[in-house]
Amino acid sequence: MSTGLESTTEHLDVVIVGAGLSGIGTACHLTTEHPQRSYALLEARDDLGGTWSLFQYPGIRSDSDMHTLGFRFRPWPDSVALADGGSILQYVRDTAQEYGVDRHIRYGKRVTASEWSSAEQRWTLTITTSEGATETLTCSFLLWCSGYYRYDQGYTPDLPGLADFGGSVVHPQHWDPDLDYAGKRVVVIGSGATAVTLVPALTQGEGRAAHVTQLQRTPSYVLSIGRTDPVAETLSRWLPAAIADPIVRAKNIAQIIALYQISQRFPAFMKNVLRKQTTAQLPEGYEVDTHFNPPYAPWDQRMCMVPNGDLFKAIRRGDAEIVTDHIETFTETGIRLTSGRELEADIVVTATGLNLQMFGGAELTVDGEPVKLPDTMAYKGMMLSGVPNLVFMIGYTNASWTLKVDLVGEYLCRLLRWMDRHGKAVAVPERDPAVEERPLLDFDAGYVQRSIHELPRGGDRKPWSLAMNYAIDAVTFRRGSVEEGMRFEDERATVGV
């Protein structure tokens, strides 16, 4: 069935939704491997960089080492392991410019609906511009690189009595750069990466807070690592970058895999190692088991990394403290806890997490039928069963996000080359009825568990299971069959008329 759009609507070979790390990285792969293909990146905001241009809270930095968070094809050019947000944003911008990707970005374009037509063998995208206008664009392949959380809304739980609080309340995702916290009492609610980043950052500099309290219901594992990578520093002095960079990257990948595997296989041993490291960095007699002893095994949730133990240093100085308790109610001057203690505050920061949202909240339709994500199964963690020519990016939960993004970008280029050689225009993952369902993300983090029922399903075997292991995925994505579990269709002569 013809849509009548062929002569009036722009058509591209590939559309990439999102100009963050995932979108920029994928576009670089596409530019290098398939320079003949036309493509565009649609970015809803007015800047590239995704998370790194959105988040403005003090101390914003990576929670993964930059030698694995950086792209494989353009290594991170510094020995800094945990980099600040501004440096990461500049790295993304430089990468986009170096590969010419920046010329393909269209800002202020939010995709609100995408409809696949089997008759046309293409996607039709409905786009809302920042000026409120509606546009239409078609493409043969649609790549969703918009991440899996809502950019316009952070998660805030029901906080009793919040309306009674007389101070300021801010979520880190919507931080006001003009917020003045100098000399103020600040309470940061949360125990994840954002909270452990904010707490020491708020105690530093001329405009530092008078005192910062991290209020948490449940502790997290906190691991101190060096701000710089000593191996990277040493090798950079003696070896050219073309040799040193792959060595450092391989070393860090091996460390990540080893840490995760040891944590999962020998949780009691790893808990003891982490406890000893934490105890050594805190004042004598500190209640480590109250504030740094989670009720779950290491890496059942993401581990928090802090550079050079900055969180522990802030606690030792007395500039910050951690309180593990439950909120009874907010008061006009602070927070009353179930233990009876009251925390006085001028500012409360709700570092309480993210809201998940697949495909930027856009509607997906295949031949007039809405795609219900929980009814689909994720193919290699990058495509959906029954949905043609669509790839999405979800990075690792136990390692750097970009490690998986790079692999998916490489695999996509392999898939497109295979389709070109065999004259195929459509690739559709076909679900095997014998494959049993599993959660897509086997991860206990609150933001995952709140929305796991809204996500596609995973499977109990390849190619429907997620390895969450770079070493395994590297072989699968670079060497594995592109035909396994996939149905292909020839190009129809009527397309493009």
UniProtKB/TrEMBL annotation:
Keywords annotated in UniProt: FAD, Flavoprotein, Monooxygenase, Oxidoreductase
Any GO molecular function: monooxygenase activity
Cited Pfam families: FMO-like (PF00743)
EC number: 1.14.13.-
InterPro entries referenced in this protein's UniProt entry, alphabetically: FAD-binding_MO, FAD/NAD-bd_sf, Flavin_mOase-like
Cofactor names: FAD
Matches recorded under PANTHER family: MONOOXYGENASE, PUTATIVE (AFU_ORTHOLOGUE AFUA_8G02570)-RELATED
Recorded family membership: Belongs to the FAD-binding monooxygenase family.
Entry protein name: Flavin-containing monooxygenase
Organism: Actinomycetospora atypica
Highest classification ranks of the organism: Bacteria, Bacillati, Actinomycetota, Actinomycetes, Pseudonocardiales
